[in-house]
Amino acid sequence: MTTANLVLDRPATSAPVSRFPILPRPDLRWTPEVEAETAHLYEKVKAVMPPVEWPFHAPYVKAINDLKKVRNAVILAHNYQTPEIYNCVADVVGDSLQLAKLAASSTADVIVQGGVHFMAETSKILSPNKTVLIPDSKAGCSLAESITAADVRALRAAYPGVPVVAYVNTSAEVKAEVDICCTSSNALKVVESLGSDRVIFLPDQYLAQNVQAQTKVQIIAWKGACEVHERFTAEEILRYRADDPSIKIIAHPECPREVVEVSDFSGSTAAMIDFVRNEKPAKVLLVTECSMADNIATETMGVTEFVRPCNLCPHMKMITLPKILDSLLTMRDEVVIDPVLAARARASVQRMIDLG
Ligand code: 13P
Ligand code: SF4
Fold first, then answer.
1. Residue nearest to ligand 2 atom 2, measured at CA
2. Any idea what DSSP says for residue 25?
3. CATH of the domain at 218
4. 3-class SS at 341?
5. Are 252 and 148 part of one and the same domain?
6. In angstroms, rounded to a whole number, what is the distance separating the alpha carbons of residues 65 and 216?
7. pLDDT number for residue 187
């Protein structure tokens, strides 16, 4: 067939053929085939999911896993995603830093972000040639929403020459204005890498206080807070310790300083999971979003008992199996960032990654 034939074969009125056509909805009935194909995945969540619930999730799990192959897609899921996402459809799970690095190295054509909007933006910033989808574009973050690019420019004007560090929980516009990004797992290292005796640190006032407690660098903090972690109080944590003095208490550094002070360990969500895996405490209190405990409950069953003061992140919980399926069928919502802005934001994220 010649090129001329090819041109003539295409109807003159056809719309441009999308690289990703919308696909028909798959059969979502609970059948013996679905049960057999997903039985090994139910094993991973059975500690936290009664058998009666699985028939509602399993058809979605199967459909999503089938569609990932069709789309050459990967699902990057944050540690706060629900157990059926974290354990049954995610290709990669982790904290913000791990997900950012994996987004950059993935060879998939499509990334579906199981997480909130700033995480999907970070994936797009690091993978400009991939299609990045967020199953619900309204899944925000109280930290990311607490500061704008104009606020950063005003801070720079107020503190000329002082380097600016942005937590990754910020918009692409904010990342584009700063010198370097950080996550909860490398914030201290990033602050100390700048060789400055003063650093502007935004937007989380509590992470800033928790870093300040470990460094001589003077930190100028923004006033943002995570709506999930700011609710924990030292009094509440100490009551758990009074009930059982042997309990291990581990807190995310987005918690207020006084909460971290009365805890045995503080670290990123991945560091918290590693602590439980490595230390195998008989009883542990995870001072963070409550899906974390559910996600590792099966692997720690019979070893570690979790005590969970349940604070849910409403934004993380906007991502569900039905929305992930819709995302893969319709290729929405796609994360789009102006390439010039993305390049400036990438410089800040890449500088963090290059620190190792
Ligand atoms: P991690 O980077 O520790 O996973 O934290 C991200 C987050 O949003 C915690 O609230
Ligand atoms: Fe943002 Fe807090 Fe939710 Fe993390 S837990 S995404 S910091 S609102």
1. 226
2. P
3. 3.40.50.10800
4. helix
5. no
6. 49
7. 98
